[in-house]
Specification:
Elements: H1 2-6, E1 11-17, E2 26-31, H2 50-55, H3 58-75, H4 82-100, E3 108-109, E4 121-125, H5 132-150, E5 157-163, H6 168-174, H7 186-192, E6 204-212, H8 223-234, H9 251-254, E7 262-268, H10 274-280, E8 290-293, H11 299-317, E9 323-329, H12 338-355, E10 364-371, E11 375-380, E12 383-389, E13 395-397, H13 405-418, H14 425-433, E14 441-443, H15 447-458, E15 463-470, H16 489-495, E16 501-507, H17 511-516, H18 523-526, E17 527-530
Parallel strand pairs: 4-7, 4-8, 5-6, 6-7, 9-10, 14-17, 15-16
Antiparallel strand pairs: 1-2, 1-3, 10-11, 11-12, 12-13
Length: about 525
């Protein structure tokens, strides 16, 4: 550094040449020369996995990236079975490898970087509740963690979601190519997400193409029409698809079909027909499209998931719990895993509160959960708590207990305003402040009661309240072609600050208004209390 400062220079690139004979290994450092280089390079940062790069090589880095990817999937609530890992691992490894080096036999660049050239795309299909959307939703943050932790801490992975289950006229309009790059079309949004003003370098974009239709002729649109439309627009062509036609020589400049920084993920209840797959594979970005059949976690995998997920929930709250053992004697159910996840989050809440009061000289702890017909017991060491079942299968302490001081304040305020007590409400507010149920939804036909709930919670420190939102009149979120200043609940919440606590009063007097709420929350699994 003294040499660089004295000569007013900086490091441009560092390369490491491996050899099976240690004395022939070498590190080459390239310095910035203003007389040769017209632009000064960005601030130099070593690859975070520098030790692995010098020791085990690029293959070791890729293996650690894979481990980080799967562990973060679990941390975000998705359990990947051995079958899913086996289906995806080959393509993911090739993608990670291509981003680090084009050839493992040439010197390895030690700058923090990730520049993939292997196009990554998956088509997930299976019955509703099999975990397709859950996996895709967690894919982006898990990929971001794998890249930032091991190869480039400055690279960001952005997410774009496009619903394909809509009339063909709407779909054609949304995917239309236009000359103005500020037109808010889907194609412009995808390209713009690679590099926003807040990023120091271009990143990656994960595009979630949700709910691909079936290939039945009566579908509007059907699968083949949709695949041909995507093939045309992503290759930069405005016209209709013609099988066997050659790609115009200038279309790649208008399209993104050869851009490996765009990762395409499809979800559908229907398998991808061969003719549809062929239409997509006309483009380079779909040349390695992998079709993956998804099914809900079941059998022993479901038991393994439950134990692993509950341990992850506890470790996310209590950081030092490396020697934690989780034993579960509960019904694990079948099919959709979201209800099991909800239950495990509640059990973890009580386990964490018991662990904070339990000391272990060896650092080892065991959490044991035993459920019978009418109750459930959570034990940590010699401490335990008995839980009973409330409405919507909520787990409530047999002896009412409130842990968070803000919850106590909100409950006391609410009970005073109502002039009566509600047995389940204190625990729901406790879950809310612990983010155990996120979001926590309280449903009632009594408008005054809901208004009092929002007021009581909004009086707590660090909580923002948004009263009087009519679900039938006020937009839940802005649509693609709405003016930029269109009022909507999503932006109202985000203005309070990401991660902030918000209490929202939603007035839903019609079925349409109630359906609009689904744009913000997954109501079926979020309902916490009915008052």
């Amino acid at each position: 550094q003294l040499f660089l400062d004295q000569n007013e220079s900086c490091i441009k690139d560092v390369y490491f040449k491996r050899s099976h004979i240690p004395k022939y290994e070498r590190i080459t450092i390239y310095l910035y020369d203003p007389d040769i280089d017209f632009s000064k390079p960005p601030r130099f940062i070593f690859i975070p996995s520098l030790r692995q790069a010098l020791g085990g090589g690029v293959e070791t880095i890729v293996e650690e990236m894979m481990e980080t990817f799967w562990s973060h999937l679990l941390r975000h609530g998705y359990y990947a079975t051995k079958d899913i890992k086996s289906e995806l691992s080959t393509n993911l490894k090739r993608y990670f490898l291509s981003g680090i080096t084009t050839d493992p036999n040439i010197p390895l660049k030690l700058n923090a970087h990730f520049d993939p050239i292997y196009p990554l795309s998956f088509y997930f299909h299976g019955r509703a509740g099999s975990g397709k959307s859950s996996f895709v939703r967690m894919f982006s943050p898990s990929l971001n963690a794998a890249i930032q932790n091991h190869v480039d801490p400055e690279l960001l992975v952005r997410f774009v979601k496009q619903n394909l289950n809509k009339p063909r006229t709407d779909l054609y309009l949304e995917l239309e190519l236009r000359p103005n790059n500020n037109d808010l079309s889907v194609m412009s949004i995808i390209q713009g997400r690679r590099m926003t003003r807040t990023q120091t370098k271009p990143g990656l974009v994960v595009v979630d193409m949700e709910e691909m239709a079936s290939n039945a002729p009566e579908s509007n649109p059907n699968q083949l029409e949709t695949c041909r439309l995507i093939s045309q627009r992503f290759s930069g062509r405005k016209g209709n698809f013609r099988a066997g036609s050659s790609t115009p020589r200038n279309s790649e400049k208008r399209g993104i079909s050869g851009d490996a920084s765009v990762i395409m993920l499809f979800t559908s209840n229907y398998a991808l027909d061969e003719e549809c797959a062929a239409a997509l594979k006309n483009l380079k970005m779909f040349s390695h499209l992998k079709k993956v059949a998804m099914s809900a976690v079941s059998g022993n995998d479901r038991k393994d998931f439950a134990a692993a997920y509950m341990k992850q929930c506890i470790c996310n709250t209590i950081k030092q719990c490396l020697f934690l053992n989780v034993k579960l004697s509960i019904p694990f159910g079948e099919g959709d895993v979201r209800l099991l996840v909800r239950k495990l989050r509640m059990l973890s809440f009580y386990a964490c509160n018991l662990m904070t009061r339990t000391k272990s000289s060896s650092g080892k702890m065991c959490v044991e959960v035993i459920q019978n017909e009418h109750s459930c017991t959570v034990g940590v060491g010699e401490s335990s708590i008995e839980l009973v079942f409330g409405s919507f299968d909520n787990l409530l302490p047999k002896i009412p207990t409130t842990y968070d001081s803000r919850a106590k304040q909100a409950v006391n305020t609410f009970f005073e305003m109502q002039g009566k007590e509600y047995s389940e409400f204190p625990q729901i507010v406790d879950y809310y402040f612990a983010k155990t149920l996120a979001p926590a939804v309280v449903v009632s036909s009594n408008a005054e009661l809901i208004s009092n709930v929002v007021y009581a919670i909004g009086k707590c420190t660090g909580v923002h309240s948004i009263p009087g939102i009519n679900g039938g009149e006020y937009k839940m979120m802005k649509s693609l072609y709405d003016p930029s200043d269109t009022p909507n609940l999503r932006e109202d919440i985000l203005k309070k600050g990401r991660g902030s606590f918000c209490a929202v009063e939603l007035i839903c007097l019609s079925e349409d208004a109630q359906l609009c709420v689904r744009e913000i929350i997954e109501v079926s699994n979020a309902i916490a209390c009915l008052l």
